[in-house]
């Protein structure tokens, strides 16, 4: 019974995801679904991304949280349009929630749409939102065990942003071990080490976005 219900939920989600995907492709809007534990630094990374890339691209953000407009307000303060979804207890965004916010945007006028998922390493990765890319953020204070302990998240993402590397001197996190664990779980995935606080390594993330955008518009 439980399995049937989950299948139905996912089937409905996948239909909405296909609707979103077609819209994103028709309007040549690159869409990135950003996922992580609470506090890994998703909003900070997006603030810095808006700061760096808004001269070149038209950027918008969908923010997912259980409650408050705080993250959307942070993005608006950087000058980008942001729409907040409150899940009121739900642990992830689904494709229908995203579809419902799309009336708030003119996608023809947006080059990059970031979706910041609810902070959680478990549920968000199981839901296709119709995005082009799923990106996971992992942060140094979370410790080395997160990749092996939450494998579904890292199996389903093609890029991992290891954030807060400015804290490496104070904690026992091993970047080498993280790379090794990631390769075992998902040999295709790549990892960029960076700090949204000090900007170290951020250029790799910005170049990756530029490459992904080119690919999106050429399709
Ligand atoms: N030292 C350090 N702190 C960081 C860095 N990036 C983010 N932070 C801090 O980490 C805390 C959480 O950052 P957020 O960007 O709000 O994290 P989030 O992933 O959006 O959190 P949720 O939306 O609640 O899931 C804030 O106090 C940030 O200032 C970093 O690179 N280095
Ligand atoms: Mg956030």
Automatic annotation (TrEMBL):
- Where in this chain does the record put each CobW/HypB/UreG nucleotide-binding domain? 31-189
Q: Which family does it belong to?
A: Belongs to the SIMIBI class G3E GTPase family. HypB/HupM subfamily.
Sorted alphabetically, which SUPFAM superfamilies does this protein's record hold? Answer: P-loop containing nucleoside triphosphate hydrolases
Any idea which UniProt keywords this protein has? GTP-binding, Hydrolase, Metal-binding, Nickel, Nucleotide-binding, Zinc
Pfam hit, one: cobW
UniProt name for this protein? Hydrogenase maturation factor HypB
Q: Does the keyword Nucleotide-binding apply?
A: yes
Spell out the CDD domains in the cross-references: HypB (cd05390)
Highest taxon above the source species? Bacteria
């Amino acid at each position: 019974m439980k399995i049937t219900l989950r299948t139905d939920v996912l089937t409905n989600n996948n239909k909405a995801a296909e609707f979103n995907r077609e819209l994103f492709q028709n309007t040549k809007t690159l869409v990135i679904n950003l996922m992580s534990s609470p506090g890994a630094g998703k909003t900070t990374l997006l603030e810095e991304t808006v700061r760096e890339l808004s001269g070149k691209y038209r950027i918008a953000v969908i923010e997912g949280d259980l409650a408050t407009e705080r993250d959307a307000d942070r993005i608006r303060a950087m000058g980008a349009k942001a729409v907040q979804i409150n899940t009121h207890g739900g642990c992830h965004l689904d494709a229908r929630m995203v579809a419902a916010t799309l009336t708030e945007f003119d996608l023809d006028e947006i080059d990059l749409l970031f979706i910041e998922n609810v902070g959680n390493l478990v549920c968000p990765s199981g839901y296709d939102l119709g995005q082009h890319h799923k990106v996971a953020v992992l942060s140094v204070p979370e410790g080395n065990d997160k990749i092996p302990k939450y494998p579904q998240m890292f199996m389903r993402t093609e890029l991992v942003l290891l954030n807060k590397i400015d804290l490496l001197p104070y904690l026992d996190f091993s970047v080498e071990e993280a790379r090794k664990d990631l390769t075992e779980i998902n040999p295709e995935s790549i990892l960029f080490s960076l700090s949204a606080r000090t900007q170290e390594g951020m250029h790799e993330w910005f170049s990756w976005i530029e490459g992904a955008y080119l690919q999106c518009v050429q399709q």
